[in-house]
Design goal:
GO molecular function, one term (chains A, B): DNA binding
Number of strands of chain A: 8
Largest sheet of chain A: 5 strands, antiparallel
Helix content of chain A: 40-55%
Oligomer: homodimer
Pfam families (chains A, B): cNMP_binding (PF00027), HTH_Crp_2 (PF13545)
Protein name (chains A, B): Crp/Fnr family transcriptional regulator
Organism (chains A, B): Flavobacterium shii
Distance between the termini of chain A: 36 Å
Keywords (chains A, B): DNA-binding, Transcription, Transcription regulation
Structural class of chain A: alpha+beta
Number of helices of chain A: 8
Strand content of chain A: 25-35%
DNA sequence: AACCCAATGTGATAAATGTTACTGTCCCTT
DNA sequence: AAGGGACAGTAACATTTATCACATTGGGTT
């Protein structure tokens, strides 16, 4: 029933795959589970083999600002970075689609860096791609107004789900962009008038 | 005349210091120099031994959004991340105080990860601290209004210069926060009325 | 069908931020 | 000393975003 690890992480060496299989534990979580909260200590590095996780930055007032998705074949960069020093998490991770994850203890994460070239490259590439993604998020809030940010948001969700119909409420979008529902409803209406989307109840169809 | 490398990078092993001294080149740049532009290919990892560098994210419209400072004992995380794949720079780096930097070729940056534990730890710690700093920047723009962002900005500049008198124009602050001078002038005036700062020409004195 | 409730639409208004225009001040250069 | 230019103060107005109030819609439940 399980997809072989080699398929999900094609760049991992066979030795690394063996090491993972004999040392790491696989766990499953249902949609809605909070995998990690801001401030919690990180004890494992997390690899995703199935499902989807959303990463948020939490505001002091309870805001949940959407940062990025984690998907199969990816790892949580924060858990890698913090793992080496057992630091506190700076982010919140929420399961949005039932996931299977591989938990790798801190000590191994560090040890494998020296032993497995393919692990080293995977970690570095994870850092790089997440850093870039976060920089794009900075762009979107630093330079753009809400209508452009909304389009950016929708595009990223479309890319993540691989479909054109997003099942998401205006309220949820508003929360994740740290604005209010009314603003999102109005901007979506304008986008509909421009022919960019088609609005249905609990669903946004992306036309372009 | 040179401060020994060991003083600036106390955690580097003696072997690593020797490797740096025999392989890397030291260069000096004057204040105002653009060390790296967005889109340029990165050929070296940069360590700072003297002076200060500011890192910006550039907007399409020419905006220069301030991200963080680089100071002696630190390295450019982007140059490390991108170095391994010779990627394009996602940021712009401007010298703000005459600097001396050590340029480390791509190949060595990567090679040393395996050979020198202290280099490995330095690189990982650089990633971690920069990632955290960028997340704080995200916070400031995602959750806070301009007056709080201004206070955050001033605090970071105070920390970087280690003094309470910032020599900076309102226009420069406005550019680096991607807003307009008038807004900054107004907010600074309010801060002065609240007793947080004292305003002089080309200088802002931080009182608290 | 009658009802409930979450989701959405929309107008009115407030607050924050951006823009324009103009003034004054200080410093440097000539 | 006179002129020019960068810097700063401020008023008036425009735009964007946030907030409040309330209406409407549609799906599910009883």
């Amino acid at each position: 029933m399980q997809t072989p690890l080699k398929n999900i992480f094609p760049n991992f060496s066979n030795e690394l795959i063996s090491a993972i299989e004999s040392n790491a534990s696989m766990q499953n979580f249902e949609a809605g589970t909070i995998l990690m909260r801001t401030g919690q200590y990180i004890k494992n590095t997390v690899l995703i083999t199935k499902g989807k996780i959303k990463i948020y930055r939490e505001g002091e007032d309870g805001g949940e600002f959407f940062m990025y998705y984690l998907q199969p074949g990816q790892a949580c960069a924060i858990s890698m970075i913090c793992a080496t020093k057992s630091e506190k998490s700076q982010i919140m991770a929420k399961v949005v689609e039932d996931v299977s994850v591989i938990m790798i203890p801190l000590t191994l994460m560090d040890k494998w860096m020296m032993e497995h070239r393919s692990w080293y490259e995977f970690v570095i590439e994870t850092y790089r791609s997440r850093f870039e993604e976060v920089l794009e998020v900075v762009d979107s809030i630093a330079f753009r107004s809400m209508d452009e940010r909304l389009e950016f948001y929708l595009k990223r969700h479309k890319d993540a789900c691989g479909c054109t119909e997003l099942k998401i409420s205006h309220q949820e979008i508003a929360t994740e962009l740290n604005t209010s529902r009314e603003v999102i409803s109005r901007l979506l209406k304008k986008m509909e008038q421009r022919g960019l989307v088609k609005l249905n109840r609990n669903q946004i169809e992306l036309l372009k």
